[in-house]
Specification:
Layout lengths: L3 E2 L15 E2 L3 E9 L12 H18 L7 E8 L2 H6 L1 H12 L5 E6 L10 E9 L2
Parallel strand pairs: 4-5
Antiparallel strand pairs: 1-2, 3-6, 4-6
């Protein structure tokens, strides 16, 4: 079963995310993933590379349950620098599509004062729904 994008009539279509998603199936909740590798080591202090790794980490957890990026229905991004995020949206979009394809879940992005891991520039939390 495919997820259904919920788009109120008359609203401008969002770019890079959905306003809402309807899904049925097994729910997978993935705790916040940051831009380090499987050994909990940062390979880069670059925001775009950390986003790539955090997305990859998130999808890797979903794969354990038999899902993939197409099953992600919700994301929350916690960023330490909104200005850098906005300035690098084109690069971020490219790595997003590399990991997530053309799946655009309901998303929220917020700037936070800091993250627990000092080197982290982003933390991404997701929910996936895998059809029964």
């Amino acid at each position: 079963m495919m997820n259904t994008i919920l788009q109120p009539e008359g609203w401008a279509k969002p770019r890079g995310y959905s306003n809402g998603i309807e899904a049925r199936g097994r729910q997978i909740y993935v705790g916040g993933q940051i831009g380090w590798n499987a050994e909990c080591k940062f390979e880069s202090d670059d925001l775009v590379q950390q986003i790539y790794q955090a997305l990859k980490n998130s999808v890797d957890v979903v794969r354990v349950a038999g899902g993939g990026p197409e099953h992600v229905v919700r994301m929350t991004w916690y960023l330490v620098d909104k200005k850098e995020y906005v300035a690098r949206l084109k690069e971020i979009g490219a790595v997003y599509r590399e990991v997530m394809g053309k799946n655009y879940p309901a998303m929220t992005a917020v700037q936070v004062a800091d993250l627990v891991e000092n080197e982290a520039k982003v933390e991404i939390e997701i929910t996936a729904v895998i059809p029964d």
